[in-house]
Amino acid sequence: MARDALSLMSFAVLCAVFVNSALAKNITDYKDCGSKGATIVRLDISPCEEEPCNFKTGTTVTGTLTFVAKEYFTSGRVKAYAVIEGVDLPLPIPTDACQGYGLTCPINNGQTANFVIKQEIQADFPKVKLQLKGEVMDPQGNMLFCFEVPIQISSSANSDSIDY
């Protein structure tokens, strides 16, 4: 009986992984904006059906940035911005790259790692097209990686309106 329950649980986890990967989109329309301590390999966003990704209010978005470290680092500081008409507007997010973003620090030179961020798209978020900019700096303030990706935010799944 316990074996059947374990098999069923394993199957459910496997299905969840496949469903999540099926909803994730490999983003090709991102820009590296100054990575020095890492090479960005891939950026996946879920859910995203087409680029630019359209984030609907009331949903949770997951972004996974895969990178290869070019240097050893023990910690990092995260910054994120909404870039609207060329103006960087800081976003309030936790700043410790090694806590809550899926990284296990330290990261070794040559190591491949995934930086994962989850964000609920709240109803009061402005409905706009923008660039999302993310940065991770090492303890000395040097840029590990930086990316910009175009996105849009719209009302819940029941409405597709965007304010410009």
Descriptive account of the structure:
The chain is mainly β. The protein is 13% helix and 42% strand. The protein is built from one helix and ten strands. Strands 2, 4, 6, 7, 9 and 10 form a six-stranded mixed β-sheet that branches. A four-stranded antiparallel β-sheet has the order 1-3-5-8, covered by helices on one side.
Specify the biggest β-sheet: 6 strands, mixed
State mean pLDDT (0 to 100 scale).
84
Q: Total strand count, please?
A: 10
Shape: globular
The helix tally amounts to 1
Q: Assembly type of the shown chains?
A: single chain
User: Separation of termini?
Assistant: 57 Å
User: Which structural category do the helix and sheet elements fall into?
Assistant: mainly beta
Content of β-strand: 35-45%
Q: Considering DSSP H and I runs of 4 or more, what fraction of the residues is helical?
A: 10-25%
Spatial extent as radius of gyration: 17 Å
Low-confidence stretches: 1-22, 159-164
What string gives the helices and strands in order? Answer: HEEEEEEEEEE
InterPro entries: Ig_E-set, ML_dom, NPC2-like
Keywords: Secreted, Signal
Family: Belongs to the NPC2 family.
Domain MD-2-related lipid-recognition: 30-151
Q: Characteristics of this structure?
A:
mainly beta, four-stranded antiparallel β-sheet, 164 residues, disordered N terminus, MD-2-related lipid-recognition domain-containing protein, six-stranded mixed β-sheet, disordered C terminus, globular, 42% strand, NPC2-like, 1 helix, sterol binding, ML_dom, single chain
